[in-house]
Amino acid sequence: MSITAVVFGLFLLLSFIKVSTFTITSDGHVEDFHLYDEKQEFRIRWKHSVEKEEWEEMFELSEGSISLTGTRFKTFGAGVPSDTGDETYIKDGWVYMMGIDQNIGKILRIRTGKDTDHRVYYGKDSILPLEEKQAYQLSVRQQSMLSAIRDYIFVETRGEHR
């Protein structure tokens, strides 16, 4: 068997094996990539455009989709519910609303503003600063192993995320 046939067979095999992934994309470009990890938490943090205070929403990957689990913020403003989720408390100057458990689905779309300093925290070590005035899509999806390897290499060789 020739090396060409082995390489072709490997590429063919990797094209058919499916894996679950969590990706962050903008304008069709992969900005961050992770293999799907059940119960993995991530957070989106930004500076509120009116109040100029930090806000943070907490999410969890669960059963192949994204769920909002909690939020925290420094000040109440118009449109903020006074009580949501299972537990509301104040800690270290933050108002926490936890136990929200709202299923978002497989795709979460966000748009950053000017001077909002949006960041995505994934797990303990990954922080992705988001560009201002951009649309982003955070998604859980099935893709071929070959496509997942390509996305992983692209993100890692860019070296922009931490």
Strand content: over 45%
Record field, number of beta strands: 11
How many helix segments?
2
Strands in their spatial order, largest beta sheet: 6-7-5-4-3-9-10
Shape: elongated
| Computed structural class | alpha+beta
Average pLDDT across residues?
Answer: 89
Helix content: 10-25%
Low-confidence stretches: none
Fold and architecture overview:
The protein is elongated and about 70 Å long. 15% of the residues are buried. A seven-stranded antiparallel β-sheet has the order 6-7-5-4-3-9-10, with no helix packed on it. A four-stranded antiparallel β-sheet has the order 2-1-11-8. The protein starts with a helix and ends with a helix. The chain has helices spanning 3-16, 145-158; strands at 18-26, 29-35, 41-47, 54-62, 65-73, 87-91, 94-105, 107-111, 119-122, 126-129, 135-144. The chain is 17% helix and 50% strand.
